[in-house]
Amino acid sequence: MFKWFSTNQEEKKPKLFEQTVEALKKSVDFVYYFNSQSKTPFWVCYQKTLIDEKKLHENILPYLQYYPLENIKDVQSVIPIESIIISNKPEEIQDKIFSGYIMVQLHKKDRSCALIKAELSESRSVSLPEVEFSVVGPKEAFVETLDRNINLIRRRLPIKNLRIKELTVGKLSKTRVAILYVDHIVEKENVHTVMQRISDIDFDHINDSSYITQMIADNQNSPFPQLLDTERPDRVVSVLVEGKVVVICDGSPQALIGPTTLAEFFSSFEDYYLNWYISSFFRLVRVFAVMFSVLVTPLYVAVLSYHYELIPTDLMSTLVTSRRVVPLPPILEALFLELTIELLREAGARLPTKVGQTIGIVGGIVIGTASVEAGLTSNVLLIIVALAALASFTTPVYNMGNTIRLIRFPFLLFADLWGLIGIVFCFCLILTHLLRLTSLGRPFLEPTYPLRLNDLKDSFVRLPFSKLSNRPVQLRTEQPNRFNQKAANEKKDIDE
């Protein structure tokens, strides 16, 4: 039925078809053939690894074979597929073929061809969140397919004002990137900023949304993430109705949210599913845990190196007993344990799941016990470092957890250099950096700097929903009010 194309074909191929075949036929998964037995002979070419062959043989070839076609435009009326494009541009044709389209040409003298969408869309099913898992609330997470992720958002926000703009980024990867926002709420300047920065990306391939995070950040040299990434559709919908902009990248299970603030990185979306007393307490615990994780080991080094008078009398004998056989100064002792914890964490993360858990537990116990018995470290510092590592895991956002792990080391070095003065000096450096940092042009330390009392209602603590009648001032939304608080109090109900 099909006569395969060869170099000794007696008739010369059309120029358009020839250009396409010559450019693509070097790959073994490129298929091109000529059907001469149908009512209207036609040429077909496609990448077999990118198209759904069932759709090709059931929804495309039978119609091409048994229906008479006078010109290429008749393909649009004959084949019951909506995504059919007529084109005469070789570059566009090649791009569409690599996007899962099938090229069809009828006559040798035709200067145009039909491009029929038959994309093979295989992706993993929607699963539980792995990074932002919560006991209470929805149990759906994004996957690596852009259209599936948008579907998860559309189902939760079925309104006409939800706008989706799509860009293509990456000279080689041609990655689809979607920008989402609610039209009648969002500040248009934020949308324009995001679209301009993504459009200006000049890179050969984009594998994940993390690439975009780094490329559109206000300060690419800052260790602090300036866009919030999440794998939860419910969180994305919540920030969209607040007036924020969301970026989703094809091939990535993470969505980017901006502009954001430092306080949001200590907020888990599960907080909104709990009583406001409980969620506020948990947020304060996370803030305390982060401060403890960053400062406790530097304080140990500073006090033992410079400020002996700060040690309580009852604790002095315990410290003397634990350190009397340790030959290392406090800074080397602390660095040894901190680096050991980081090595165990990296090894556990890179190894297979079951092996990684074993290495993390057994390695930590064995190395910790052996280092104390060998006299390399004191048992007091071992407990402090273990608690600091445990406290660093309370950060709900993984990227901020990496930042907390990093900034502990400058504090350690300044503590060994100048004691408590060094810790204060390093804290001032980081605070100055945070004061100058912005997220899509908005202050990163808002609502504490600049001070905005309205936004403090949902920052380091969360007040009841009845008090959250206004959207964040930082976002400058077109509709600052979410609901009428006075009317809601009279009805004893909230209607957003």
Q: Can you write the helix and strand succession as a string?
A: EHEEHHEHEEHEEHHEHEEHHHHHHHEEH
What order do the strands of the largest sheet run in, or round the barrel if closed? Answer: 1-2-3-5-6-4
Give the uncertain stretches in residue-range form.
1-14
Described by its quaternary structure, the protein is: single chain
The tally of beta strands, per DSSP, is 13
Mean pLDDT: 86
Q: What's the gyration radius in Å?
A: 30 Å
What's the structural domain tally? 3
What's the number of helices? 16
Q: From the helix content, strand content and strand pairing, which structural class follows?
A: alpha+beta
Distance between the termini: 62 Å
Outline, from the CA principal axes?
Answer: elongated
Percent of residues in helices = 40-55%
Secondary structure topology:
Layout: E1 2-4, H1 15-24, E2 30-35, E3 42-47, H2 53-66, H3 74-78, E4 84-87, H4 90-97, E5 101-105, E6 113-117, H5 146-156, E7 162-169, E8 175-182, H6 188-199, H7 209-215, E9 228-230, H8 233-242, E10 245-249, E11 255-258, H9 276-305, H10 313-323, H11 330-350, H12 353-373, H13 379-392, H14 398-418, H15 420-436, E12 438-439, E13 442-443, H16 485-491
Antiparallel strand pairs: 1-2, 2-3, 3-5, 4-6, 5-6, 7-8, 8-10, 9-11, 10-11, 12-13
